[in-house]
Amino acid sequence: MAKVRTQYVCQNCGYNSPRYLGRCPNCGQWNTLVEEVVQTASAKKATAHAATLTGIVTKPQRLNEIDAKKTPRVKTKLNELNRVLGGGIVPGSLVLIGGDPGIGKSTLLLQVSGQLSAEGHSVLYVSGEESASQVKMRSERLHVSGDSFFIYPETNMDSIRATIDSMKPQYVVIDSVQTMQSTNVTSAIGSVSQIREVTAQLMQIAKGMNITVFVVGHVTKGGAIAGPKILEHMVDTVLYFEGDLHHTYRILRAVKNRFGSTNELGIFEMRQDGLREVRNPSEIFLEERLKDATGSAVVVSLEGTRPILVEIQALVTPTVFGNAQRTATGLNRNRVSLIMAVLEKRANLMLQNQDAYLKAAGGVKLDEPAIDLALAVAIASSYRDHGTRPTDAFVGEVGLTGEIRRVNRIEQRVAEAAKLGFRRIFIPKNNLKGWQPQSPIEVIGVSTIGEALRLALPE
């Protein structure tokens, strides 16, 4: 009898080691190496042969002979989801959705499955975490039904493949990939080897049978999808479902999309009867803004191809400790420290003995250079105790020498501010070269941070 070979695999990054190590030398995490049995040659042959069971037989083709007709997309009733996917669902794609527990991943997929079933598409919902009766209870609350909507509580991939072969559904939902188990791998459920093998089989099903597969993925404490990074490389689209459990708004963000733009963003509102799409998020982020408040500035941020107006709030107060504090919510703390250093050096604001607290209102996260000017104006407004005009918006990147640098898609940003009733918008002066604004909003070009503060916060 052949000796069973084992190896130790890091459950955080997938690093392999022939012996146990307390700390992974690749990612530096402690106690993440788990013993797993090395896959035998017969199991590898069985995995390779499994592709032929689903009719996945390919051969080399000349590039000129390949039909490159545009694949028609399937529209759902959730336009926000269509936007994030690049215009709709691509048949035969493999979509991975990750997010915190209870954020609404299963609710979103259950709603989408019900909508697809109502339009005559066959949907197989594979639940590895809930029983059929539990899914039925949630579907009744969401008012989801359909004759071509099937619930299948199963975790064995062999049974799931056999069911897909017999039913041949158009859409398959796997909830979740960490609960699925392949008999070709002897390691525990949820291990790196299991996740890699299950995802490979799902990819064969999606590409070989032209079935769209939605996969739910758990996330780690750091917010990344649990399992090896190869999981995100294998799928076609990676979506993150974000939000605060204390608020009703949820943000669906695309970080990878082979069929559309990355960094697209869709906003939903969680209600008792499910998720409702938010068609104009800028109004929500600005609806509670005070008229004459100090330390407030509105920025036109760009998320993918969508411009969104967000209020940036700053509170600058004298420090009571030796070192001044810098606290940021929804903003990059290093970016805040950089902007404050530029203001102190180039705008003569004594901020080194001031505590600064900044946040992006509404729970949205902003991380693009175009928000620098709004950050600087909000900090200066709070420091001087001088409010900005409620009809002013700001867009621009601030350099270390105090210059305002150009940003992309300025026409879309200006048009969005004008649509919401803003009367003035401050933009980089270089963005005005070769462009004549035609909108009713007043466009003011500024070249330095000092010039912007003089115009936005006159003495």
Describe the 3D structure:
With 459 residues, this protein is of the alpha/beta class. It folds into three domains: 6-38; 75-279, Rossmann fold, CATH 3.40.50; 284-456, Ribosomal Protein S5, domain 2 (2-Layer Sandwich), CATH 3.30.230.10. It has twelve helices and 21 strands. The strands form four sheets. Strands 6-5-7-8-4-9-10-11-12 form a nine-stranded mixed sheet. Strand 11 and strand 12 (274-277) form a beta hairpin. Helix 9 (333-346) crosses helix 10 (372-384) and helix 10 (372-384) packs across helix 12. It starts with 5 loop residues before the first strand and ends with a helix. Mean pLDDT is 88; it is low at 46-55.
